[in-house]
Amino acid sequence: MTTPTPTTRGSATALRRVVLYATLLALALIFLMPLVWMVITSLKTYTAAQQIPPSWLPNPLAGYGYEQILNNSANPVLRWFLNSMLAATLHSLLVLVTASMAAYALARLRFRGRGVSFALIVGTLFIPPTSLIIPNFLIVDQLNWIDTLAVVVVPGAASAFGVFFLRQFFLSLPNELEEAATLDGANQWQIFFRVVLPLSKPALATLAVLSFLTNWNDFLWPIFVLFSPDKLTLPPGLGLLQGSYVTDYPVIMAGAVLASLPVLILFVLAQRHIIQGVSRSGLKG
Amino acid sequence: MIQNDMSRRRLLGLGLGLGAAASLTLAGCGGGDSSSGPAAGNGGKEYTGPKVDLKLWNGFTGGDGDIFKTLVNQFNTEHKNIAVSVATYQWEDYYNKLPGAASSGNGPDIAVMHMDQLATFAARGVITELDDVAKNLELAEGDFAPTVWKGGLYNNKRYGIPLDMHPLGFYYNKAVMQKAGLDPNKPPTTKDEYVAALAELKKAGVQGFWVSPFQFTGGMTFYSLLNQWGGTLFDADVAKATFNSDPAVEACTWLVDMIKQGYSPANVGQDADYLAFKSGKNAFTWNGIWQINDLKKSPEVQWGVAPLPQIGSKPAAWANSHNFTIVKQRANDANKVSGAKVFINWLSEHSLDWAKGGQVPARKAVREGAEFKALPEISSLAPELEYAAFPPAAPGLGEVMTTFYNSFNEAALGKKSPKQALDDGVAKANKQLEDNRKKYGS
Amino acid sequence: MADVIEVGAARDDAPPPAANAARRGASAGRTGRATPYLFLAPYLVLFGVFGLLPIVLGIWLSVHQWDFQLPNRPFIGLDNYKDLFSSDSAIYGDWWESVRATAIFTVLSVPLLVVVPLGLALLLNRSFPGRTFFRAIYFAPYVLGVAVIGLLWRFLLDANLGLVNRLAGAVGLPADTPWVTNMPWAWISLVGVTVWWTSGFNAVIYLAGLQDISPELYEAARMDGANAWQRFRNVTLPGLRPVLLFVITTTVLASANMFGQSFLITQGAPGTETRTVVWFIVEEGLRDNDAGRAAAMSIVFALMLAVVSIANFRLFRYKED
User: Fold this and answer.
1) What is the share, in percent, of chain C residues with pLDDT greater than 70?
2) Any domain includes A37
3) Residues A194 and A53 in one domain
4) Count of domains for chain C
5) pLDDT per residue over B218-265, tens digit each?
6) Is C70 at the interface with chain A, CB within 8 A?
7) Chain B interface includes C93 (CB < 8 A)
8) Across chain B, what does the average pLDDT equal?
9) Topology adopted by domain B31-163+321-389
């Protein structure tokens, strides 16, 4: 069901293809509609966006939202965007390095305290990070990290998610390759860097994207620990675009469009590597 | 490098003893050190010291923010040795982040705050006393609405200098009124007129008055009506909640019945009442004075604004007030404090310009000037200030007010009868008030 | 706990990829004894400072009446915990209502968030022209932060003005459904929006997992005359089991931690029925400045989640047998 069969041809295949595309399109419509609406709204004037019933097409077509975002020095959206990019990239690198090493030890190495460490780490998965916001604040304050880049990069990397995720993948790696490498005289570091990591590209890429996005979308923590307008990341920044008493839809939607397009493009470009990567099963054969 | 070493050492300290660590964190922000407060400067008359940079935080994310920034720029040009920089956050985020920012040394020097937040922040030692500024500004009770004046006090000391007052106003859509055969220049002012107008509108197929179940604006409308019926939210000492009294239940019932009588749809969403007003889907909305500026941005809407109609036995309108406060710092800097006082003094004197941001100036002298009267829409709501119902001041009241608004939400959405919803709310509010008494002591 | 969790991955009945897990560790020991600890060290530093220390601090806070700013933060023993369980405290009602809200949301959303993305992943795992395009579309909502999707849907779902009711009316369905203000619609909306928003996330994890299932297994199954359903049941599902366990665990936790959606879309309405535990904790700790009580709630909540998750793992082990 998941692999196409080039051998069967003819009308049955054609029919299946039609059904497949119909399903895909119907689903795509559901997924896209709200997003299309977002783009439409971003191109409306302030008053047109508040019209009831709303019009389907932006009339008049207005650059108002985008202008407000790009020309208003009080809303340095580009700066927020770069801050977010930098924070999310560094965060996901940090997660990749620390989590892959720890997961490797927990999945493939035998040592005293392994069970306890793993239980402790996974145990924290149950604790909602948002609920520890105040203790965490006290800690980053001690580190003098408040209102710096580090405060949105580092603390989140303590999440057990990455370790848990990679460990599950490492467990499923075949032992033969490692054994062969060991016979060749490789030590654990060499095995880790030359055998395990290359074999885990899909998992690593997936984790990279997921940590990037978790960080990218985080909105409570940054609000609480970033204060200077030029240090904000996008989520608290976009929050500023929302007026106190009235919602300026075109501005917010324009901000959202500008902020999400680059990430979406990034995903399209990277998704092949994320999902396909090096197929382990292929190597094994 | 030094910075890093410092951090590590502090972190080690944290690891060694939690108690010690916590006291370390809080050493700078606790109550004890108010030495720089009242003594510094000469109450905001002038500042002649070395140049100071001041951070100011506010929640003016709307059009009022631009006007505020213009005023700050003007101040900066006029004062060579004081540079004020403004950061704006949404009010909701603002109140959440201010305590943490202040305690970590990242807070502002000057913070704008709503009247009903002052007591909480004063009790928690976030802001400093300003008695000398008030004295120097020659502010006296007679210059303010009494509640606004008292709202700035906590334990008989002044913590806030009122900048403005913003009451709830009655907005009417002239085009819709005309369509229903009503005189667009004679908005209803009494209960009978109001209900009659709604009946006419209903005949014309318009649900004239959408009752929002949310704090903005249904909760504030109920708040106003409760006071119009002669009820109160709390007793005089803010020790017991009283918003389930007979007048309160009657006011709530009247408002919720708007839905039953078909004058309002059920399940009105957040902002839906106002958006519908702008699109001519309803005729009346009870909304904040700040919407005047927003409506001016929509020239195609024909609207007017007037004081709230008197539905109950006396006139009353929800209102609140923005206040200036000075935030306590980890490191006390007398120069900053006196600079901040100069700023507050200056802006208070320029509050007429602030009126253009859509608020009524707090000072009577400014309100009664000809220039203020030349702002027709905003000055038309000034009469409300005589009977404005400001929120009571007591530390920790924020969560109790949430309970109040939530009980109205349940009544407006038909989850409970008005009586039931308010009884339940009062029961919970009383427990919260008791917790607050324990926490803040009084 | 470690034993319980390993169950999900260590299996001995199925062909690769997971089979070797049971023998894992066989290759260890070639290098110095310190090596495993060196591998662990960087993460453990992070984990210690930002994972464990906050918990310890949290426990410490939970036995105090603790406010950032109040000079007086008395030790009050277990009072914060007692308040959660004694019906005459101010927060008892709110607390259990929020637990109920979280439980409802989790129970309703998790099955959908496990199944729908799996369906998407199976569709998108085929190779056909335009696959990248569709993958991007299904993933697109997740790129938007909760602040944006919250605002967007609040507008779309408005009972009287929203587009959703307008479309419903246009096709002859009731046009006055109170999507965000009344029951059961508020839950339907919150679950629906969450499925729309995060399905792409789980689908990507499934897709990565599907890559690891060897095509030969499908070929072999086909040889044995297995139909599509049998192949799914006997090849795909067993092959996905570690990934499935992972997805279920993380989705349960993510749903239990829901906060932004109800904060922005329903605003807790009606009343406070859709106010979730995490929202309530944040409100108590930040807005109402009672960090001690918030910490006590976090700890009780974490224990509840731990029980659920352990049950979850047990369930998987039984299925295994």
Assistant:
1) 88
2) yes
3) no
4) 1
5) 999 999 999 999 999 999 889 999 999 999 999 999 999 999 999 999
6) no
7) yes
8) 85
9) D-Maltodextrin-Binding Protein; domain 2 (3.40.190)
ipTM of the complex: 0.83
Q: What CATH homologous superfamily does B167-319+396-440 map to? A: Periplasmic binding protein-like II (3.40.190.10)
Q: What is the pTM (predicted TM-score) of this model? A: 0.86
Question: Do B31-163+321-389 and B167-319+396-440 come out as alike in CATH topology?
Answer: yes
Task: Domain of residue A227: give its range.
Answer: 76-241
Instruction: Determine contact, residues C284/C290, Cβ cutoff 8 Å.
Output: yes
Percent of chain A whose predicted confidence (pLDDT) is above 90: 24
- At C27 the pLDDT is 44
- Determine the Cα–Cα distance for residues A104 and A163; give it in Å rounded to an integer: 9
Task: Compare B26 and B130 and report the one with higher pLDDT.
Answer: B130
Q: Which residues of chain A does C232 touch, with a Cβ-Cβ cutoff of 8 Å? A: 1
- Angle, helices A201-217 vs C185-211, to 10°: value is 150
- C57 to chain B: closest CA residue: B18
Q: Tell me what pLDDT residue C8 has.
A: 35
The reported pLDDT for the residue numbered A243 is: 65
Distance from CA of B115 to the nearest CA of C (A): 16
Q: Which residues does A79 contact at the CB level (< 8 Å), separation at least 6?
A: A230
Q: Which helix (H) or strand (E) holds B150?
A: helix B146-151
- Any chain B CB within 8 A of the CB of C175? no
CA–CA distance, C29 with B28 (Å, rounded to integer): 51
Residue type, position B250, single letter:
E
Task: Quote the CA–CA distance of B431 and A1 in Å, as a whole number.
Answer: 61
Query: Do A99 and A164 belong to one domain?
Result: yes
HSE toward the beta carbon, residue A6, CA cutoff 13 A: 1
Residue B269 per-residue DSSP state = P
Q: Is the pLDDT of residue C26 over 70?
A: no
CATH of the domain at C279: 1.10.3720.10
> Which residues of chain B lie closer than 8 angstroms to C178, CB-CB?
266-267, 413
CB-closest option in C136, C242, C306 to A264: C136
| DSSP assignment of B115-128 | HHHHHHHHHTT-B-
Q: Is residue A233 part of a domain?
A: yes
Looking at the structure, do residues A61 and A202 belong to the same domain, yes or no? no
> In chain B, where are the structural domains located?
31-163+321-389, 167-319+396-440
Per-residue pLDDT tens over the stretch C197-209 = 999 889 988 888 8
| Of C321 and B395, more confident | B395
Is residue B311 predicted with pLDDT exceeding 50? yes
Note the pLDDT tens digit of each residue in A9-57.
567 788 888 888 898 899 999 899 899 999 999 999 888 888 877 888 8
Residue C94, CA atoms < 13 Å, CB-side half-sphere? 30
Provide the 3-class DSSP secondary structure of residue C137: helix
Please write down the HEC assignment for all residues of chain A: CCCCCCCCCCHHHHHHHHHHHHHHHHHHHHHHHHHHHHHHHHCCCHHHHCCCCCCCCCCCCCCHHHHHHHHCCCCCHHHHHHHHHHHHHHHHHHHHHHHHHHHHHHHHCCCCCHHHHHHHHHHHHHCCHHHHHHHHHHHHHHCCCCCCCHHHHCHHHHCCHHHHHHHHHHHCCCHHHHHHHHHCCCCHHHHHHHHHHHHCHHHHHHHHHHHHHHHHHCCHHHHHHCCCCCCCCHHHHHHHHCCCCCCCHHHHHHHHHHHHHHHHHHHHHHHHHHHHCCCHHHHHC
Summarised one tens digit per residue, pLDDT across range A108-119 is 888 888 989 998
> CA A197, CA C260: separation in Å to the nearest integer?
35
Domain count, chain A: 2
> CB contact, 8 Å: A164 with chain B?
no
- Predicted confidence at residue C290, as pLDDT, reads 86
What is the pLDDT at residue C25? 44
Q: Which sign does the torsion angle of CA A191, A197, A203, A204 carry? A: positive
